[in-house]
Amino acid sequence: MNKRAIATVSLSGALDEKLRAIAAAGFDAVEIFENDFLSFDGGPRDVGRMCRDLGLEICAFQPLRDFEGMPEPQRSRNFTRVEKKFELMQELGTDLLLICSNVSPASLGGIDRAADDFRELGEIAARHRLRVGFEALAWGRHINDYRDAWEVVRRADHPSIGLILDSFHALAPKLPTAAIASIPKDRIFLVQLADAPKIDLDVLSWSRHFRCFPGQGNLPLNDFMQAIAATGYGGPLSLEIFNDQFRAGSAARVAVDGLRSLILLEDDVAARAQPPRPSRLPPKQASRGVGFIEFAVNEDKAGDLAALFGQLGFTQTGQHRSKAVQRWTQGQIDLVINCESHGFAHSHYITHGPGVCAIALEIDDVDTAMARAEALHTRTFHQPVGSGELEIPAIHGVGGSLLYFLTPGGQNWDRDFTALAAGAAGGLTRVDHISQSMPYEDMLSWLLFYTGLLDLTRSPQMDVADPGGLVQSQAISNADGSLRLIINGSVANRTLSARFLSEFFGAGVQHVAFGCDDIFTTVKAMRARGASFLAIPDNYYDDIEAKYDLAPDVITLLRENQILYDREGDGEFFQIYTHAFDDRFFFEIVQRRNYQGFGAANAAIRLAAQAREARPVGMPRIG
Q1: Which of 62, 45, 61, 48 is nearest to 19 (CA)?
Q2: What domains lie within the chain, and their CATH numbers?
Q3: Predicted structure pTM score
């Protein structure tokens, strides 16, 4: 098994803080980035001792820049400089120095000239019992292809000189990776890994600001890893991530994300190998939809929320036998109102106010799903339950909420609840999707969490125009669409998503969408029960009438009911929104006709309408 490593440049904080976070996450080794060391108030022996105490091996010291192919007197000064680095490395307790290809305008170029430099350097390194790894930067002046870097190493022909392969520098410029398989494994000294989103940007800026962990971007990392595996390489796999969000966020959280990404990548590589290799990670289990959604409120708000549920056609079908917890049902949808004065839901309410505190997901094999969650370093949750009450396995999710895991149909409502009535046929049939808002810098973390844990795939990220700025929106769903999640984030502080974070004091569920088979009939019945919905401008319906060949009576129904409409090919989508409950969350009613999206074309219209209704920032809440 390859050792799992990460470069300190990937995290925020001082060097000692980074090392503690790396060790706590469970990494085996670390690359010490020179700038982190230079700014640290301690010597190399102190850093080496700290790493040993934390159980971390220092797998490399990096980077040394602009070495090979320099004219005199720079060449002589470079060798003197490397000698100093070798002395420092010996005090640190590491044997590998990373040298990246030269970008200096003064460099002379030439494979043989570079090989001669490294052969001479190899002799010096050998005297110190050290090694030097050469890495091709994608923007190197003369050497910017790993194949040329390998040729330099091959011609240097010295056991202390080897190759360092970085996935970004191979995949971002779209270099073929098949040639990696022919490199002898003992000549590869280190493999560095980074993913990245597709961005139309020069490769240097792309690398310096937008790298991310494997599985968070779009680079074909599995192709790179299959080529690495073909060499038989058994050394460390190290994450080297330059990302502004990561270096501004929590070092502890980013470190856990990094280790999780390596575990998932190793599992994916094993599964795709020919023949497939056994996985050390419990397999993903098929998700079957939402079992229930639990809302945490106080006694006063419980009545208001119950009234809204009633207007939407839900019936109270159960009362908990020992707690202030209600079950509300419609179609295949179960909602829970929890106004207990103690326990997890109460703590969530105290922190966030009224809102979703837990989501229960139906999973084929709950035990295996929980084992996978634990293997991916996900925090599990346990709380005391009453005698004879059902204990549901759970993990911590977005914003301190919970994700419960249930076998399909495993809610066993009769065990904990007294039945009050049968669920009425109110028109709503299922939970269509759940939308969660979070700080923009957390989106990659939760994307990795969901796609690593569950059988979910992501759709392309979208930019949605909010009157207060852009919102980034990422949809993820399972194959049959029974589980759809949307995660939203924005760097603008006046968007509805940002306002939610302020009102809710953190990330969480901003809205829940319910599906129906006939939205016009369903909404008509809801209005008859007292429900009211978000007002949409007439201008929108004038545009819909001009854009689509809808029958006049359909346009009239859309306009009268304030229902939004979208079309993709032959697919049609209808949607309508409730007003926000306590300025925090809202509900959406949708109807799909062979349509897979989420009405992105209407998002700006909806956001503008909600912005008009929103309580001005800073205004007190009444009641």
Answers
A1: 48
A2: 4-272 (3.20.20.150), 287-419 (3.10.180.10), 431-613 (3.10.180.10)
A3: 0.91
Please answer whether residues 172 and 203 qualify as being in contact, where contact means their C-beta atoms are separated by less than 8 angstroms. yes
Q: Are 305 and 586 in contact (CB under 8 A)?
A: no
Distance CA 545, CA 194 (A): 48
CA dist., res. 145 & res. 555, Å (int): 59
Q: What torsion do the CA atoms of 276, 278, 281, 285 make, to the nearest 10 degrees?
A: 60
The residue-averaged pLDDT of 595-613 equals 93
Residue written as token pair 């009405």: 599
Please say whether the beta carbons of 335 and 291 come within 8 A: no
Residue 132 burial (CB count, 10 A): 28
**pLDDT band at 494; cut points 50, 70, 90:** confident
* Backbone phi, psi, residue 454, to 5°: -115, 165
Quick one: tokens of 231? Answer: 């060499």
End-to-end C-alpha distance for the chain, whole angstroms: 60
| Rounded Cα distance, 431 and 435, in Å | 11
Task: Identify the H or E element spanning 564.
Answer: strand 564-568
Task: List the structure tokens of 543.
Answer: 């545009």
Are 262 and 225 a contacting pair, CB within 8 Å? no
Residue 451 contacts residue 376 (beta carbons within 8 Å): no
* pLDDT tens sequence across 258-300: 999 999 999 998 888 878 888 889 999 999 999 999 999 999 9
Return d(Cα 195, Cα 211) in angstroms, integer: 6
- In sign, the C-alpha dihedral spanning 229, 153, 143, 242 is positive
CA distance 557 to 520: 7
What's the rounded Cα separation, in Å, for the pair 245 and 209?
A: 8
Q: Cβ-count burial of 41 within 10 angstroms (0-12 exposed, 13-18 middle, 19+ buried)?
A: exposed
Tell me how far apart the alpha carbons of residues 68 and 116 are, in angstroms, rounded to a whole number.
Answer: 9
pLDDT digits (tens, 9 = 90+) for 563-579: 999 999 999 999 999 99
Do residues 127 and 114 lie in contact, with contact meaning Cβ atoms separated by under 8 Å? no
- Which helix or strand (DSSP H or E) is residue 317 part of? strand 315-320
| Residue 620 confidence (pLDDT) above 70 | no
Please count the residues of the chain: 623
Do β-strands 237-239 and 188-193 pair in parallel, antiparallel, or remain unpaired?
parallel
Quote the mean pLDDT of the chain: 94
| DSSP assignments along 47-92, one per residue | HHHHHHHHT-EEEEEEEE-S-TTPPTTHHHHHHHHHHHHHHHHHHH
DSSP-derived letter for residue 30 is E
Cα–Cα nearest to 361, from 353, 373, 349: 373
Q: How far is CA 254 from CA 246, 265, 376, 403, in A?
A: 6, 16, 13, 21
Among residues 65, 141, 134, 152, the alpha carbon closest in space to that of 103 is found at 141
Provide the H-helix boundaries in 234-387.
251-272, 299-311, 344-352, 366-375
Q: Identify any residues that bridge with 97 across adjacent strands, giving them in sequence order.
A: 61, 132
Whole-angstrom Cα distance, residue 319 to residue 311? 19
Q: What is the DSSP string of 406-437?
A: E-TTTT-HHHHEEE--PPP--SEEEEEEEEEE
